[in-house]
Design the sequence.
């Protein structure tokens, strides 16, 4: 399975009761990578296999809890609520902070940053 497609927004969503393993599935542990790390590895393997192409990667990290969308890249203490918008060109999207991703290390750093806000 490959995750790479041109001009596509990817989203990972998990739903389940408390303590069912959603966070572990997404983030994993040091010796067992989660879905997000495995997806990032696949994305950068594809990028490295196509050195003559340009790729633009941006990431947002949001949590939906009790029908409230919270931006996990938002700085602690500031309003982290996210609005849902609709645009004729972009379609429906969350108005959340987007981080530019330039390497596997930068996406791991972004995940750690969002994970800190989640915990």
Sequence:
């Amino acid at each position: 399975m490959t995750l790479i497609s041109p001009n596509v927004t990817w989203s990972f969503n998990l739903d389940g009761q408390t303590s069912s393993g959603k966070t572990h599935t997404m983030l994993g542990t040091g010796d067992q990578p989660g879905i997000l790390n495995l997806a990032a590895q696949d994305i950068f393997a594809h990028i490295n296999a196509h050195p003559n192409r340009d790729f633009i990667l941006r990431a947002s990290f949001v949590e939906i809890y009790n029908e409230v969308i919270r931006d996990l890249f938002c700085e602690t203490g500031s309003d982290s609520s996210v609005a849902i918008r609709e645009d004729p060109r972009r379609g429906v999207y969350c108005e959340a902070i987007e981080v530019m991703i330039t390497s596997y290390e930068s996406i791991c750093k972004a995940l750690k940053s969002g994970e800190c806000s989640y915990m």
